[in-house]
Amino acid sequence: MDLVQTIRAGQGGFLLFGITPPKASTPPDKLRQITESTLARLEAADPDGVALYDIAEEQDRNPEARPFPFLPTLDPGDFCAQHLLAWQKPAVIYRAVGKYSEAQLAGWMREQPADQVMTVLVGASSSKQIGATSLSRAYDLRQEVRPDLLAGAVVIPERHTGRGDEHLRMLNKQEAGVCFFVSQILYDANAAKNLLADYADECEARGVAPKPVVFTLSVCGSVKTLDFLAWLGVKVPHWMQRDLRRAENTLDASCEQARMIASDMVQYGRRIGVPVGLNVESVSSRRVEIEAAVQLAVDLRPILQG
């Protein structure tokens, strides 16, 4: 599959594997080891593209103490271009636009090979955060300097449950040039299906084609990880939290839930005519969770092809 052409054509059925770059403080010898391990992980998962996250501290997201400490990472674009040279498939590079000036963003966009690199432009985590560049201005910049560079946006199904207007946000971003959407980690399939239904209906009402929507799945190997998801604002249904907390093996239980959610979303997208892709997020440093994420990606491929 040519991921760039698939998304450009407005089609789904593709698989991404999402990772974070190594910590900025990583010494050179350790960085080489991490790079080799990352490439081996990607080879085993065999996704259609890799997604590299741009990590921001986002302390304003939640006043409560962060369950895991924030540690700055290498720039995702630099890590991909300088270290993942053996990766031959496309990359989706996230950009937390508030971290960069307009000149920095525009310069980075101009340098990217549009047949190999896409971007997801991410705005502030809260209205209180004032960044160097706003999300709306970042969309304008892409249109001005690199309209051929495919741009995606974050979509949050749970926000639709509370506000009821996430599908309108999607259409506004679509009008600004966004050609695919990627969700945060999804545990609430009902929230996602309600969003897809409203999005499909609004696209039909406006006479426009729906863009691919990529749902992110992840493994949860411990109660502490579950607490971190809550800190990030990820909504895990009460019944699922109960099951995960009481499971003999939290990791196995979360993988089973992820597979069921993935199947549910792919089938529902097909039924209502919204192209759906999947993204397996693997950001843990624990080997058992890394291996589980790789296996989850392998397990999801038949769901996409079915």
Structural description of this entry:
The protein has 306 residues and is an alpha/beta fold. It has one domain (3-300): Alpha-Beta Barrel (TIM Barrel), CATH 3.20.20.220. Helices cover 49% and strands 14% of the residues. The protein has twelve helices and eight strands. The chain has helices at 3-8, 28-45, 76-83, 102-111, 135-145, 157-163, 166-175, 189-206, 223-232, 238-246, 250-272, 287-305; strands at 15-19, 49-52, 91-96, 117-122, 151-155, 180-185, 213-218, 276-281. An eight-stranded parallel beta barrel has the order 1-2-3-4-5-6-7-8, surrounded by five helices. Helix 4 (102-111) links the parallel strand 3 and strand 4 (117-122). Helix 6 (157-163) packs across helix 8 (189-206) and helix 7 (166-175) crosses helix 8. The longest helix is centred in the C-terminal third of the chain and has 23 residues, at 250-272. The chain is globular, with a radius of gyration of 18 Å. The two termini are 15 Å apart.
Helix/strand structural class = alpha/beta
Mean pLDDT: 92
Unreliable segments (pLDDT under 50, ≥5 consecutive)?
A: none
Q: Which strand order spans the largest sheet, edge to edge or round the barrel?
A: 1-2-3-4-5-6-7-8
Major β-sheet profile: 8 strands, parallel, barrel
User: Fraction of residues in helices?
Assistant: 40-55%
Question: β content, as a range?
Answer: 5-15%
What is the total tally of β strands? Answer: 8
CATH overall fold name = TIM Barrel
CATH class: Alpha Beta
Give the termini distance in whole angstroms: 15 Å
Enumerate how many helices there are, as a single number.
12
